[in-house]
């Protein structure tokens, strides 16, 4: 059965054009009634009713049944009579366009894409350069998606060369960060998924290979909010420095994994990284690369529990250079990622 659509009631052609444009931005289509008498079949079943100020009095005269989720929309600024009309039709608020366009997009988005999931956000950071955080982030995302979890993999590092390369998908069609970096406000996950490279249950937001740009905080917020509504899991590969976009991701993370080389320099560097990350996020956990320092010592140094030791993968660089993704499945890295994900999901 087709899901009911929002209802727009207006005879003002210019206002209707505005509403249709705003609906498109929210990823929804309206049922349209150009006269109040034609609205009755849709009135009770529409998830949201948008009433034009031009027909508010005529609509009130028809005596529509009381209901929730009715808004009055006008293009006339500061009309003192508009609130009386709002009360007359049982609307909850008056939205003046164009100033309130973003609010209307959010209202439409809520009814078009109610939160069906509460995606777990996991950030992954390297304790130092070359720690393998990007490979771990990509491997976790691949493992989760192959296990049936709808997953978004976000590359937040503009200097990392593109996480799509780790997946062997650098030629995949779809948007990259520069194409959506200007977005803010509510974004439909369905629209985001349609725009980005998607492989089964895995959707990827990566970087292009051009001049690096920053991720605006507002854009990261819009992406993660959409992903949390539409995904089971969101994996964010962080840069080595905490810029605005990374800070936004860290603030929304249920847990942040720090990949630590088990040597003296690696542990000292990771301890500094952990101190920086703690300014923006709460739950830190260490993932250890094998070396000469015991994981318990590393855990104490970082004041963060160790959740496992990454297996060494022979020939990994050659595998990635061939354009193949990291070896997962029943391989040691695949089993490690499966166990780690199970623990993270259970803890959440």
TrEMBL record:
Record-linked InterPro entries: Cellulose_synthase_operon_BcsQ, P-loop_NTPase, ParA/MinD_ATPase, Rv3660c, Rv3660c_N
UniProt signal peptide: none
Pfam families assigned: CBP_BcsQ, Rv3660c_N
Residue ranges annotated for the Rv3660c-like CheY-like N-terminal domain, each copy included: 9-116
Protein name in UniProt: Septum site-determining protein Ssd
Species, as recorded: Sphaerimonospora cavernae
Name of encoding gene: ssd
